[in-house]
Amino acid sequence: MTQSVIRVLITDDHAIVRQGLRALLATEPDIEVVGEASNGAEAVAAADRLQPDVILMDLVMPQMGGVEAIRRITARWPAARILVLTSFAADDQVFPAIKAGAFGYLLKDTSSEELVRGIHDVYRGALALEPTIAHKVLRELAHPGGRSPTPDALTEREGEVLRLLATGLSNQAIADQLQVAEATVRTHVSNILGKLHLASRTQAALYALREGLASLDDADMSS
């Protein structure tokens, strides 16, 4: 990417948290806070208006929670890069957020260095998961409910796309590497999600990790 500054939208219902995050990120020369939202509804409106590169998203907020906001933002803007930053690590918070399209999930007791690294990872399209969250999601994918995904359902090219997707590459970067049109990659990604019964690129990347199609080092997962 040629852009040198990552534009961030902060979403949290506590003003003191927003102020603290803004102060922290102000010390980073390549990160700019372009807006704040105090609930999910404000985040949806701000995302439409500002088109930030990364959205920091709390989950438990009045008026509209984070999961619903993630769902609405990704429905309007599929390329949105959303990093959950919350105090809650319960399954009923983690899995809906990932399914809704969050690229990362960090806890509020994470270090400032891990948060900044997570923002950079999500901006690049890589996963940014706090280790205990990553283990939860990988365990869930190891024992999926309903229809079980199988890599045998994928064509050879779809397998290539899945491996590259798991490393955090964008559709355009994958297209450049495979020397095909970006629209072709979009079609492959859609087919992969459908065949594996997955809901998002994040789930697809985690699935590739579980199946050994990519490694944590390839995915550059935050730790």
Backbone structural class:
alpha/beta
Number-wise, the strands total 6
CATH architecture title of the largest domain: 3-Layer(aba) Sandwich
Largest sheet: 6 strands, parallel
Number of domains in the coordinates? Answer: 2
Strand neighbour order, sheet with most strands: 2-1-3-4-5-6
Give the overall average pLDDT: 85
Q: How many helix segments?
A: 11
Provide the gyration radius in Å: 17 Å
Sequence stretches where pLDDT stays below 50 over 5 or more residues: none
Query: What is the approximate shape?
Result: globular
CATH fold-level assignment of the largest domain: Rossmann fold
- Note the gap between the termini: 23 Å
CATH class identity of the largest domain: Alpha Beta
Task: Put the structure in a nutshell.
This protein is an alpha/beta fold.
Describe what you observe in this structure.
52% of the residues lie in helices and 13% in strands. It is α/β, with parallel strands linked by helices. It has a six-stranded parallel sheet, with helices on both faces. The mean pLDDT is 85.
Topology:
Layout: E1 6-11, H1 15-26, E2 31-37, H2 40-50, E3 54-57, H3 66-76, E4 82-86, H4 91-100, E5 104-107, H5 112-124, E6 128-129, H6 131-142, H7 156-166, H8 171-178, H9 182-196, H10 201-210, H11 216-219
Question: Which descriptors apply to this entry?
Answer:
alpha/beta; Arc Repressor Mutant, subunit A; 223 residues; 2 domains; six-stranded parallel sheet; single chain; Rossmann fold; 52% helix
